[in-house]
Amino acid sequence: MDEKVKLPAEQLSGGVIISAIKDAGVDYVLSVPDLHTSYGLLMPIAEDPDLTLIRTCKEDECLGISAGLSYGDKRAVLLIQYTGFLFAMNAIRAVAAEQHKPICMIIGLLGKQPGVAPQDAKRLGVRAVEPLCDIMGIPHQLVETDDDVHLIAPAIIDAYENRHPTALLIGRRPVAP
Amino acid sequence: MMNRLECLKILAEHVTDEIVVATYSCATDWMAINDRPLNYYGFGAMGLASSHGLGLALGRPEKRVIVLDGDGSLLMNLGTLVTIGAVAPKNFVHFVGHNGSYEANGGAPLPNRDVDFAGIARSAGIRSAHTFTEIEDFEAKVGDLIKAEGPVFADLVIEQGPLSNRDYSEMHSARRRELFREALDAGA
Question: What is the total count of domains within chain B?
């Protein structure tokens, strides 16, 4: 037998994620730095001429900016850490959940061990992310390897077309392009 | 010391097709004075009016955006001034009603009412930062201020109250947000 078997990807490439964001028509990336995604995503995005990066001081700012941009038909993603997601919960409740704004959050699960489900992570904060999304009615997907990256663009496009928030949980530290 | 209603009535004489983002006491007063589809009240969490305004200014660069903020609200999101200073939208004007209290939440004082907001804005990179304490001065300059190249910041030192009728359910309604979007799409 000479049949080639495709092995599951064991890495997450920042460049592939950035391509997926662009495929979804994203214009702006709004971010507070996250050690989990700084090298693989934030730094290359800062150098990317096709994306405009706005560095904010706190994560809840990103909710307002993204909502405002949506009235100009400009698409944005928030690039934040799970701690920032927890901090911004009241803004997420109001702007994303109650007002049905297309808030697209890329959330770095710093400290989650690769291959371990978020609900089984050692860190309480990581374990809390998916249940909080569920309570808020926010669809969420785990992006752990390159095999999961195909989930990103459809999730963002659906959020904007149907006016609802979405969360993409980065489960492994992305590799810089 | 100035009065918020007086300031907003004077501002209303100059507002034409701008987007006005108003929050809490400024919002209820502004709604009573100048209710119009291009008023944006859908900010949700306290402190975020200027962040919504920044997004609107970037998303709709052909429009001017005026934010009517409160001092308590701004203190809940003080980093916004640094972000706005860095992004530097030319179509963005930020007024703050500075009465030293969380007036919409019962009137309890701020931790320190004598904050130099214009000084903070200036050091955050917003070069056009002003403080107004006299209504005659505000009246003389506000027309030019809302047309000036942004970002513009103005601290309006005012007394507490009086408060207009507070109908948050109407201003935060989905219908209001839809009217706002329709007005934008119609090129109002």
Answer: 1
Helix (H) or strand (E) holding B138: helix B135-145
Residues of A in contact with B42 (CB under 8 A): 67, 99
Minimal CA–CA distance to B43: which of A65, A8, A11? Answer: A65
CATH superfamily of domain region A14-170: Thiamin diphosphate (ThDP)-binding fold, Pyr/PP domains (3.40.50.970)
* Range list of H helices, A24-151: 43-46, 59-70, 82-87, 89-91, 124-136
CB A21 within 8 A of CB A29: yes
Could you read off the pLDDT tens digit of each residue along chain A, which spans 177 residues? 455 676 667 899 999 999 999 999 999 999 999 999 999 999 999 999 999 999 999 999 999 999 999 999 999 999 999 999 999 999 999 999 999 999 999 999 999 998 999 999 999 999 999 999 999 999 999 999 999 999 999 999 999 999 999 999 999 999 998
CA distance A85 to chain B (A): 15
CB of B143 within 8 Å of a chain A CB? The answer is no
Give the predicted TM-score (pTM) of the model: 0.96
Residue whose structure tokens are 């050091």: B123
Residues of chain A in contact with residue B61, where contact means CB-CB under 8 angstroms, are 72
Give the DSSP per-residue string, A129-154.
HHHHHHHHT--EEEE-SGGGGGGHHH
Partner-chain contact A57 B79, CB within 8 Å: yes
Question: What distance in Å separates residue B59's CA from the closest CA in chain A?
Answer: 4
Q: Which residue of A has its CA nearest to B40?
A: A68
Cβ neighbour number for residue B162 with a 10 Å cutoff: 10
Instruction: Please name the residue of chain A whose CA is at the shortest distance from the CA of residue B21.
Output: A68
Per-residue pLDDT reduced to its tens digit, A96-136: 999 999 999 999 999 999 899 999 999 999 999 999 999 99
CATH code for position B74: 3.40.50.970
